[in-house]
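JOB MANIFEST
job_type = single_chain_structure
chain_count = 1
residues = 275
[input]
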Amino acid sequence: MIELLVTCDENYLNPLQVMLYSLKQNNQNDEFRIWLIHESISAEAIAELRHLCHVLEFKLETIQIKEDLFDNAKTVERYPKEMYFRLLCGQILPESLERVLYLDPDILVINSVTDLWELDLQGKMMAACTHTGLIDFTTTINKVRLNTDHGYYNSGVLLIDLNLARQYIKASEIENALEKFNQRLLLPDQDILNHLYGKYILEIPEEIYNYDGRRFMSYLTRSMGEHNLMWVMENTVILHFCGKPKPWDSSSDSRFTAMYLNYQHQKTRLLKNLG
């Protein structure tokens, strides 16, 4: 059983459904249990998601956060309060779970996740990817901004050792860091993840496990032409639509927009045909 964690509000339920559909299409022989942590998704919307999971043969567990967690945390339009729930997933999920794979909703899974799920974390609390360019100025800036000595990890794909997360991640530390950095937070939960817990993260290759859909030419150039579209389709596991526009927006025209829309249309047709 592969344990998959998602945290979102109702606005991201449609992208979440597309992500889950792509997961099923490219992992037909694996069993999945989906853990959705949320604050205020309606019962009707949960029922719709549960129906899709039933069709895809996924188990769905929902956990509604009713306490006033992170009421004072910095949030912006693209980063609602739900983003903080992943940081405390060790405390929120059942203690019987030892490992979970977190995925953002704005993702397509285009190959098997088995190797990632079974990855040896080498004693680290998490595995994650950094997004670096050909000339990487941002890593140096983030090291100064957040007082770190490692790359800047993207929080959209996280393999988490929950036992270590329960040991190392404390709500009080997160709250103190939010207060300390306040105006310096650009991507709030991601900044906090890097500042507090980056030293516990094992870096894994971004072109395989967290491919930024905006940066095809960067990957192609950096790999001396090896990582073309055929390479991506054969080797990349997780295609992440970071930033804006999102592939479901009418203004999106990236190399991967059509692929996303194809999965979206297939998911819609599947549910329509089933009535």
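[summary]
The chain has one domain: 2-205.
The longest strand covers residues 153-161.
exit_status = 0
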